[in-house]
Design brief:
Elements lengths: L3 H13 L17 H23 L4 H16 L5 H18 L7 H7 L4
Helix pairs in contact: 1-2, 1-4, 2-3, 2-4
Length: 117
C-alpha cells in the first residue's frame, strides 16, 4: 500500500493532465466541443480534489463510494454521449487505482449502463 503523501501526489499529477483529448490507445476520438471539454475537465478535477480531501481526512471506503455516487450525479444533467461517459468511467478507474479502491460496488456500472454488471 502506498503512503498517503504518494497517493496525493499521484492524484495531483492526474489532475494536472489534459483530459478528454484523443487517445488512440483506447480508441477514444477526443472531445471537440471545447466548452463541454472544459466543463467535463473541471468536474473530473473536482472529483480528484474531493478524493484528495478524503485522503487527508483518512476517510473509510464507504465515504469514497458515496463521493463517487455524488460526483456521477453531477454528470447526469449533461446528457453525455457514450464515448464521453466511457472516458469518464476510465478517469474514475484511474483515480480508484491510485487510491487503491478495487470496486465502486456497482455504482459506476449502474451510472454507465443503467444496471449493475
Amino acid at each position: 500500500m502506498k503512503e498517503k503523501k504518494d497517493v496525493v501526489q499521484d492524484l495531483i499529477k492526474l489532475r494536472e493532465q489534459s483530459k478528454f483529448n484523443e487517445d488512440i490507445s483506447i480508441f477514444y476520438p477526443g472531445l471537440e466541443n471545447t466548452e463541454l471539454k472544459g466543463l467535463l475537465t473541471g468536474l473530473v478535477n473536482k472529483i480528484i480534489d474531493n478524493f484528495i480531501s478524503l485522503i487527508n481526512q483518512c476517510a473509510v471506503h464507504k465515504e469514497y463510494q458515496s463521493t463517487i455516487a455524488e460526483s456521477l450525479s453531477e454528470f447526469d444533467a449533461l446528457e453525455l454521449d457514450t464515448e464521453e461517459r466511457e472516458r469518464l468511467y476510465q478517469y474514475l478507474e484511474q483515480i480508484m487505482e491510485v487510491i487503491g479502491i478495487e470496486s465502486s460496488r456497482g455504482i459506476i456500472n449502474k451510472w454507465l449502463y443503467g444496471f449493475e454488471i
